[in-house]
Each structure stands twice: as structure tokens, then as C-alpha cells.
Specification:
This protein folds into two domains: about 220 residues, Rossmann fold (3-Layer(aba) Sandwich); about 180 residues, Glycogen Phosphorylase B (Rossmann fold). Helix content is about 45%, strand content about 10%. It is built from 18 helices and twelve strands. The strands form three sheets. The chain has a six-stranded parallel sheet, with helices on both faces. Strand 1, helix 1 and strand 2 form a beta-alpha-beta unit. Helix 5 runs parallel beside helix 9, helix 11 crosses helix 16 and helix 14 crosses helix 17.
Length: about 450
């Protein structure tokens, strides 16, 4: 079996979806499957070996943008398109936070979702031409997220293979779009995703949410929780002294960076916790610098900036060192996180978590018994949860150990790979059986007489 995995890149910062897709491609190969990882838009940035192998980037971000802005670029020669798709140019474009306005982004998103009817149909034709020429012939195509459903009709018609769509965090992006593009984008996703052979949601919470919002066929919806390569992580030999509160996610407001900072300021006022430190780590995307500067100013105004360390764009080694250096992790994202790989990474290092009781967090904390849930991201409430663990080292160690044991057993990449293969093998086998049955019926049919109506 040959699996095509289509995954978009960010070009300049780490993202959980890219890391997950990259690890899945590598694990599928280790399971003996042929995997072609196809990068879209921008170079894939990952903290381990790039599973795309430096393959040419399809739907290059510059070409996609220019084809949206001007009809002229929808008919440019191949040599110019290829020049605009070079990794150096795409990486430079990825570092620009102001490349598209909210209005432009909305119109571009709707156009991409329309696939063969959109302004980027030239890029779709190039992708389909490439995929029809690869050997071995693809058996199934996996799309990294539902924002790629504009590709699906062309893939099904030209390749005649099942298409699987992963559901992971699309709602937040779509809800961010301004009207009328928001409604148009949701409508287009809802219409096109119905053609998929299977949907894979990364958590039960997110599967239920998207089933309702997209009117998905529940019989084709599978919940396959995310996973990590647990062999890459190990607990620290000793706990940090003084204790350290950690945050590991994109350094932005939506992930709760401001909330954890306010909780830390409140925590520092409590007797016995004055020595506590805060470590902030994670991706720094284009446009995040201004918000991070405001965070630094807030820490300085509170008189605690000397007790805070900031670690942007951590490599894998840096991330492991970071996790081993903290006592507890908290990423108080309130917007509706579909999963949160950072929780698995913390637990794999034996670090307990404190999370708000929203979105996928209760599902994960209850499954692992690896931390505490609090009722909101308000500073005092979050500080209460953090203080409960910082002042109880035995309980902190117990929860960290429970989290690590659960991740090793239930959230390792080998389990994710096995579950994904169960789904795709069933689809491919079912398609083969239907086609074989059709051939048998054709062969068994009596020949028509000469001149019979056709």
C-alpha cells in the first residue's frame, strides 16, 4: 500500500499539526508502508527529521497569493511558477506577518476551498499531474486538515482512491475569518467534506464539535487521539529548586500566555511561593513579537521579570531540556483546543499539568490522571491549582508518574499508526472488494447481440 500524506507547512515556526504529521509519516514507513509526504504552501518546520525529504512544495504560498490577487498569475509559465516556489523565497515570505489582510485571507481561504472552481486551479492541476505520475500508484490520500478539502474532488476523480481527512483545529481558523468569508468558508467545507471516505478527529471533544458544525456522517467519523514518539522523552533525574511553572505552546494570547503570566504574578504574592520561577517556551510566529513585548513589560511592572525565562522556537533538544527543568506545566488556552500535544510531551517527561476545564483538556487529564483541572483561567483560580501542586511535592510526583505511564501505554506513535492503518486498510480493502465484484459481474454478464442498443 502506498499512502499520500498532504501536509501544509508554516515556513518559519513549529506547529503541533506539522510535528504530528511528520512523526506519523515516519512511523507509517517504519510499519512497512510506502509513504509520500507532500508539503503544501510553505516549508515544513519540524523538530525532528523532515519526513518530506525536501520534496518540492506544492501550492507554493507566493504563487497561491499572487493567483488570488491577479488573473495574470493564473496563466504564468511553469518556469516562473517554479522560481516562485523555491524554498528560500517561501521561507522569506513566511516571516512576513503582513502578507495578507484579514479580508484578503478570507477571500483566499474561500478560493482554496473551492478547489477546481477557485483561483488556484492551476496549482491543483499541477498537484494532480504529479500524483498521477508517482510510483507506486497511491492507494489512499490523507489530508492533514479539513482546510484542504478543496483538493478532494480532484483527488477522487483523478486517482480514484479513498480520501481521509484529519480534523484538528480548523474551527478556530475559520471562525477568525471576517464575514462574509467566514460563512462562505464554513459552507464550502461542509459541502465538500461530505465527499470524504473517512474523518479522523484527534479527540472525542473535537470529533463531537465538528460532527455538529459540519453535519458529518457519524459512521465515517473515527476518533484517533494524537500521540508522540515517547522514546524521545524521559523524566529529569531530580526536581528543580526553586520550583518552576512552565508554559510550552505558541507564545501568543490565544494559547493563554497572558493568563499564565497573571497567575504567576498572583502566585508570587503567596507565602512560601516567593521563590517560584516561570519558564515560557514555544513557537514565535510572525506577528507575535509585539504581544511578547507587552508580556515582558507586564512582568517588569509587576517586579518579577528577573524570575522569568523566555525560550522561543525550541529545538527538540531544547524542548526536552525545558520540560525536564520545570515542576508543573500549564497552557491555559480557552479558545477550544482540539488536543494539545504539549500535554503529552510534559507527561512523557513525568511533569504534571494544571489546565482549565475546557475543550479537550478534561478528556486528556481524565484519561491520564496526570494533573489538575481548574474552573477558569482567572489569575487567582489558576494560581490556586498551581499552588496545590507546588506545595505538595509527593502529589506532584504521583501525578507526573501517572501521566507518564498513561502516555507510554496509550499515546505512543505506534498506537496512532496502528489505528490509522486499521482505518485506511479497511477503506482500501473495501474499495478493492467493490471493484472486484464489479469485474465479476461484468465477466458473468451474457454477451449482447450485434446491433443491440448501447
Amino acid at each position: 500500500m502506498s499512502i499520500v500524506l498532504v501536509t501544509p507547512g508554516t515556513g518559519s515556526y513549529y506547529c503541533g499539526s506539522c510535528i504530528r504529521d511528520n512523526a506519523l509519516a515516519r512511523s507509517l514507513r517504519q510499519a512497512g508502508r510506502e509513504v509520500l509526504a507532500v508539503p503544501l504552501y510553505l516549508p515544513v518546520i519540524t523538530d525532528t527529521e523532515d519526513s518530506t525529504g525536501g520534496a518540492p512544495i506544492r501550492f507554493g504560498g507566493i504563487n497561491v497569493y499572487l493567483q488570488q490577487r491577479s488573473a495574470l498569475f493564473r496563466h504564468t509559465p511553469a518556469w516562473l511558477d517554479k522560481l516562485l516556489d523555491t524554498r528560500s523565497l517561501l521561507s522569506a515570505a513566511a516571516r512576513r506577518a503582513d502578507m495578507t489582510s484579514a479580508h484578503d485571507l478570507g477571500a483566499l481561504t474561500v478560493s482554496m476551498l473551492r478547489g477546481e472552481a477557485g483561483n488556484q486551479r492551476k496549482e491543483l492541476e499541477k498537484l494532480l499531474g504529479f500524483l498521477t505520475s508517482v510510483r507506486p500508484v497511491p492507494s489512499v490520500v490523507m489530508l492533514s486538515n479539513a482546510l484542504l478539502v478543496g483538493l478532494m474532488r480532484g483527488l477522487r476523480e483523478r486517482l480514484r482512491v479513498p480520501v481521509v481527512v484529519t480534523l484538528q483545529g480548523e474551527d478556530t481558523f475559520l471562525d477568525f475569518l471576517p464575514e462574509p468569508h467566514r460563512a462562505a468558508a464554513w459552507s464550502e467545507v461542509r459541502r465538500r467534506i461530505a465527499e470524504a471516505d473517512a474523518y479522523v478527529a484527534v479527540s472525542g471533544y473535537y470529533g463531537d464539535l465538528m460532527r455538529r458544525r459540519l453535519a458529518l456522517d457519524a459512521t465515517r467519523l473515527h476518533v484517533v487521539p494524537n500521540a508522540i514518539e515517547t522514546s524521545l522523552y524521559a523524566p529529569a533525574d531530580h526536581e528543580p529548586d526553586p520550583p518552576v511553572v512552565g508554559y510550552l505552546a505558541r507564545l501568543c494570547e490565544a494559547k493563554g500566555l497572558g493568563a499564565i503570566v497573571e497567575a504567576f504574578v498572583a502566585l508570587k504574592r503567596r507565602p512560601g511561593l516567593e521563590r517560584t520561577r516561570l519558564a515560557l517556551g514555544g513557537a514565535l510566529a510572525p506577528g507575535d513579537d509585539a504581544y511578547l513585548a507587552r508580556i515582558r513589560a507586564r512582568l517588569a511592572a509587576a517586579g518579577v521579570v528577573e524570575d522569568v525565562s523566555i525560550h522561543p522556537d525550541l529545538t527538540l533538544d531544547g524542548k526536552r531540556s525545558f520540560l525536564r527543568s520545570i515542576s508543573v506545566l500549564s497552557v491555559p488556552a480557552m479558545y477550544g483546543e482540539s488536543f494539545g500535544l504539549y500535554l503529552l510531551e510534559a507527561w512523557a517527561c513525568g511533569v504534571p499539568v494544571v489546565q482549565p476545564r475546557v475543550a479537550s483538556f478534561p478528556e486528556l487529564v481524565n484519561a491520564t490522571h496526570g494533573g489538575l483541572l481548574v474552573e477558569s483561567d482567572r489569575a487567582e483560580v489558576l494560581a490556586d491549582g498551581l499552588a496545590a501542586l507546588l506545595t505538595a511535592p509527593a502529589e506532584r510526583r504521583r501525578l507526573g508518574a501517572a501521566g507518564r505511564a498513561a502516555v507510554l501505554e496509550h499515546f505512543d506513535m505506534t498506537r496512532l499508526t496502528r489505528d490509522i492503518l486499521t482505518i485506511v486498510d479497511g477503506l482500501v480493502g473495501g474499495r478493492a472488494a467493490v471493484e472486484a465484484g464489479g469485474r465479476e459481474r461484468d465477466e458473468a454478464a451474457p454477451p449482447r447481440a450485434a446491433g443491440a442498443a448501447r
